[in-house]
Amino acid sequence: MAVYDDLGPCLVTGGGGFLGGALVRRLREQGYSVTSASRGRYPALERIGVRQVEIDLASASLPVVRDLVGGHDTVFHVAALTGVWGPRELFWNTNVRGTQVLLDAALDAGVARFVYTSSPSAIFDGKDHVDAGPELAYPARHLAYYPASKAEAERRVLAANGLETASGELRTVALRPHLVFGPGDPHLLPRVIERARAARLPVIGKGTNRVSMTYVDNGALAHVAAAKSLLRSDRAAGKAYFVNQAEPVELWPWLFSIFDAVGVPRPKRRLSAQTAYVAGAFLEGLWKLLPLGGEPPMTRFVAQQLSLSHTYDLGPARRDLGYEERVGLAEATQRTIADLAARTRN
Predict the structure, then answer these.
(1) Which pTM was predicted?
(2) What is the structure's pLDDT at 343?
(3) Which of 116, 146, 215, 241 is catalytic?
(4) Which of 71, 137, 162, 258 is most buried per CB count within 10 Å?
């Protein structure tokens, strides 16, 4: 194994998750010493020599987190609470409070680099985004607590860039991978397939919206590239970058190709974007009023995500981070379909 010591020992929060796990594997392949901080333990990480620490950043004290962070030169903060529904407190405690205590600990411990996994939803304003770049501003309001909490956490990470640490200055960067998919995906496509199989997934809007996706291994590669860019210069320091496939997909035809491959019927029901949005608003109100479990079958945020175009410009990430995807869209889709088909058979 080739050994590279430029990033030093690395801490990855959420190393047992989908993107976090891919990042840990990438770092280990490059010879780095890696600690994973998660709320559980994962045998797969033990097998590749990853030190594991069980911790919940949403409630951990600063001294405990400082002990976790100490001895690491680079922190990758991947862990987050995702979802389109739930109490504000849960999202704020995990995504905002957890990020802030990790930042504070990094400053106290003299960490040199802090790479934050953000989301394009942090700047989603309910409009079509076509090849959008860093000019997008945070919206005045968000339609769900998840994007609102990611936006606030991203602000704090970028504002911490250049602050003095125990041994120098902290350099920070935020990455915004969009709709991460690939083999082993536990959430995104399995949930969509489940809804389609149960005939609970209508086609929203005209069905021609284009969307940027992020293959999981490419997302991991981008995180390593971002950390290394902070070693070379401060060009990327204090900035946010979109990370996705170079080629976007037409969302619904792309989903149909996956449904066909795994034997799931295509959705027959269609809703206009406006109808879905109004239905989402009504259902959100109903779920808040009544003691209903789970999440509403439609929300305003989901209606917009499924009907609008959101594609993002890779130019800044290529220029400043030196990032280039390793796996193209066609191959990434085929790998994903093969994995989903195998899981469906089993």
Answers:
(1) 0.95
(2) 80
(3) 146
(4) 258
